[in-house]
Amino acid sequence: MFGIGLLKGLSVTMRHFIESYLYDRKPWEPRYHEEWLRKRQSVEGKGLFTIQYPEQKRKISEHFRFLPMLVYDETPDKPRCTACGVCARVCPPQCIWIQRATDEKGRPQARPAGFWIDTTICMSCGFCAEFCPFDAIKMNQEHEIPTSDRDRDMFYSLEKLLVPVEYYAKLHPSDYAAEQQERQAKQEARKQEA
Ligand code: SF4
Ligand code: SF4
């Protein structure tokens, strides 16, 4: 009958409206129901289907990536990066610039003197991390980086890009574990060859 579909649609809206009070806005509980947040976007979800950002935040997937970061193992003056330039070559929008360090005689060194990424151009593709032969560049998940001056704050230099390996291991535990395993296997193979 004409209008039945409309009434059905409105009844769904009304049900969610009422459920939002039953499940999310209980006066005797905090407004943002953390326990319900887990279930909310599953098939069992009832009540408010939206996340009350920024008070509530969804857990980020391990494989989420935003901007690149440079990993160091012990101290920031010894980054894993060897300034080989592979990442700069594969970067589709060409937003990476690297300056190789030199010794006192001007001979090139296997480390960067400068490393810059224009994050306003970066498209978070992750190619740089994928192609780096030294596991030196990885993808960071930090994405809440509002600024009023993009030229000043979004042009990342070496100092801003460097992070300790522990930080990377915490963000991407399974990738880190797989890399460690591969590294150990290579070391074992080298020992046996020797
Ligand atoms: S981050 Fe990796 S690919 Fe890029 S210059 Fe450094 S070592 Fe080479
Ligand atoms: S994530 Fe992609 S676009 Fe961004 S710096 Fe790396 S290669 Fe370039």
Question: C-alpha Rg, in Å?
Answer: 24 Å
Number of DSSP helical runs: 8
**Mean pLDDT across all residues, rounded?**
90
Name the beta content range: 15-25%
CATH first level of the largest domain: Alpha Beta
Class by SSE composition = alpha+beta
**Roughly what percent helix?**
25-40%
> Can you tell me the CATH topology of the largest domain?
Alpha-Beta Plaits
Element-level helix/strand string: HHEHEEHEHEHEHH
Total strands: the figure is 6
Q: Enumerate the spans where pLDDT stays under 50 for 5 or more consecutive residues.
A: none
Number of structural units classed as domains: 2
**Ligand names:** iron/sulfur cluster
Largest sheet: 3 strands, mixed
Which term fits the overall shape? elongated
Instruction: Please identify, by name, the CATH architecture of the largest domain.
Output: 2-Layer Sandwich
- Widest β-sheet, arrangement of strands: 4-1-6
End-to-end distance, in Å?
84 Å
Annotation keywords:
elongated; Alpha-Beta Plaits; alpha+beta; 8 helices; binds iron/sulfur cluster
Short description:
With 194 residues, this protein is an alpha+beta fold. It has helices spanning 4-23, 34-40, 86-90, 127-131, 150-153, 158-161, 165-171, 173-193; strands spanning 68-72, 96-102, 108-118, 137-139, 155-156, 162-164.
